[in-house]
Structures are given as C-alpha cells and as structure tokens.
Design goal:
Layout lengths: L1 H37 L13 H7 L2 E9 L13 E2 L5 E9 L1 E12 L4 E11 L3 E7 L8 E9 L2 E11 L1
Parallel strand pairs: 2-8
Antiparallel strand pairs: 1-3, 3-6, 4-5, 4-7, 7-8
Length: 167
C-alpha cells in the first residue's frame, strides 16, 4: 500500500505541474498577442518628457541674494542697512541668476505687528545674473518699529527674508 500512496502522490504532483505549465503557456500567448496591440497607432506616444519642461521654466531663475538698503549704486548694488529714518526710501535689492521670461519679482514689507506695510513688484526678463531693485516710499514717514522684507518670484517665497528697523 505504501507504494500505491507514493505513486499516487507523485502522479498527482506530475499532473499539477503539467496543468500549471499549460496555464502558463496560455498566459504567455495572451501577453504575446497583447504586445502588438500596444504598438498600434491608436495609442499616442507617452508624453512624460514634455511634463517637466514647464516646471523647469518656472525654476530657471533663482534668487541668490536679498539686500535691504537706502541707496542704489549705478550697477544697482545696494549697501546693506539695518537702521532707517522714517523719511528714508527702503530699497529691497534682489540678485537673481538664470533665465526668466516675464517672471514676477515682488517684495513685501511687514511691520512688527504683522500688518503689511507695502508690496511692490517688477517683471524680470533675463538670460543671466541680474539685480532688480524694488523701492518703497512713504510720504508720511515709516512708523518706528521692526520690519521684515520678503521676496517672491512668481508668487513663491524666494531668497532669505531680511529684517530692519525704523527709528
């Protein structure tokens, strides 16, 4: 009886293997038939490489330096100032690098209580390093206190915010 049980087990295993091999063969045939269908002109070519291009254009210009000062030199450079008088102009100088086409470079001044003291922007078109100066004036004079200057490129925060004081 033991020989019959072993023979039956071996026969069952052999039949299961043959059955699985037969099923696998059908799957391979189905896959082989599906491959030419994937190559038919009805399906468009993948557009994955085109998607990153708009993102690359938006990130093509980067802010390398933000300086807050009172006066600009002929080359648009601004000497850093941390203390301003109420009647001083406040210049936020934004140094960028890269390529930009109609990029919006903006600056926002925030007073110590969180109130926005001023916002201004300029359009940037460049293919190299560039300095953009954004000037803030207050005919009535700036209220005494601490301020923060923040820069945005196309509405996104850029560069390091700068703090200064009006006395």
């Amino acid at each position: 009886m033991k020989k019959t049980s072993i023979s039956t087990a071996v026969l069952a295993a052999l039949l299961a293997t043959v059955a699985l091999a037969g099923c696998k063969k059908k799957e391979d045939t189905a896959d082989n038939n599906a491959q030419p269908a994937a190559m038919t002109p009805a399906e468009p070519a993948p557009m994955t490489p085109a998607a990153p291009e708009p993102m690359a254009a938006a990130a093509a210009v980067s802010v390398t330096q933000v300086t807050v000062g009172k006066t600009a030199a002929a080359d648009k450079s601004v000497a850093t100032a941390a203390l301003f008088a109420p009647k001083d102009d406040i210049i936020v100088s934004v140094r960028t690098d890269g390529t930009a086409s109609n990029a919006n470079v903006g600056a926002k001044l925030t007073f110590q209580d969180g109130q926005v003291a001023g916002e201004n922007s300029q359009t940037l078109n460049t293919t190299a390093a560039e300095t953009t100066n954004i000037t803030f004036k207050n005919a009535k004079g700036w209220p005494a206190g601490k301020y923060r200057a923040e820069v945005m490129v196309d509405g996104k925060a850029a560069g390091t915010p700068q703090e200064f004081e009006v006395k």
